[in-house]
Amino acid sequence: MSSPPFIVVEGVEGAGKTTQVRLLSAWFGEIGVDHVAAREPGGTSVGEAVRTVLLEQREGGMPPETELLLMLGARSVFVREVVDPALRRGQVVLADRFELSTFAYQGYGRGLDLGEVRRLNAFATGGRRPDLTVVLDLPVADGVRRQAREGSAPDRIEQEGVSFLERVGAGYRALAVEMDGVRLVDAGRGVAEIQAELQGVLREAFPETFRTRTGS
User: Quick count: other Cβ atoms within 10 Å of Cβ 8?
Assistant: First the structure.
């Protein structure tokens, strides 16, 4: 029997990742797929503490190298305390962000050497990689407008501005072309339409796991 998949949902700010992860988790429950859903950075006590520093720290600035190492420290714990144990138990893992965020934000966005970022990421994760990463692709301006409509206050990284986020978005698209196991999904549509496509992508990629229990 093959091991359960490790699935990640990625995207720029305002692309709707958190909503789609929540809906996927609900769908997994409906069709009887045992799973763990978690956000990254986060999902552990260490990860949540690091998340607070990364996203809420406002004063004094933070060097890109520090940001990267904090992110990878949280990821190391996430893999060892959440991802690996869940997969060993036979549970699907569904994560809101993982390594592609680091490649896009700290590599393309901050301008850190992408080869070095990848090397350090592999060390932090012990080589653990997602079986599938879905990138919700949305123009940065649309994401900013969505967040403004929702009234959400920008975090430290979101406050970097449009040019930074444009580099991140371009990075995601480049990575989707370059890397195996990455799918781009148009996030400029309604929530239900995006969710339907995501479910179709998962059924196609992992038919044994995501066939519905009703036979449909």
Answer: 25
The rounded mean pLDDT for the chain is 92
Q: State which H helix or E strand residue 134 sits in.
A: strand 132-137
For residue 56, what pLDDT is reported? 78
Separation between Cα atoms, residue 23 and residue 199, nearest integer Å: 10
Structure tokens at 157: 């990284």
How does pLDDT run across 79-102, given as a tens digit for each residue? 999 999 999 999 999 999 999 999
Task: Compute the distance between CA of residue 158 and CA of residue 110 in angstroms, rounded to an integer.
Answer: 13
In a domain, 76, yes or no: yes
Mean pLDDT to the nearest integer, 104-120: 97
Q: Sheet holding 182-186: strands in order across?
A: 35-39, 92-96, 6-11, 132-137, 182-186
| CATH number (domain holding residue 97) | 3.40.50.300
Antiparallel, parallel or unpaired: β 132-137 and 182-186:
parallel
- CB neighbour list of residue 152: distance below 8 Å, 6 or more residues apart: none
- 3-state class (DSSP) for residue 93: strand
| Cβ atoms of residues 172 and 102 within 8 Å | no
Q: Is residue 52 part of a domain?
A: yes
Pairing of strands 132-137, 6-11: parallel
Q: Which residues form the domain of 202?
A: 6-210
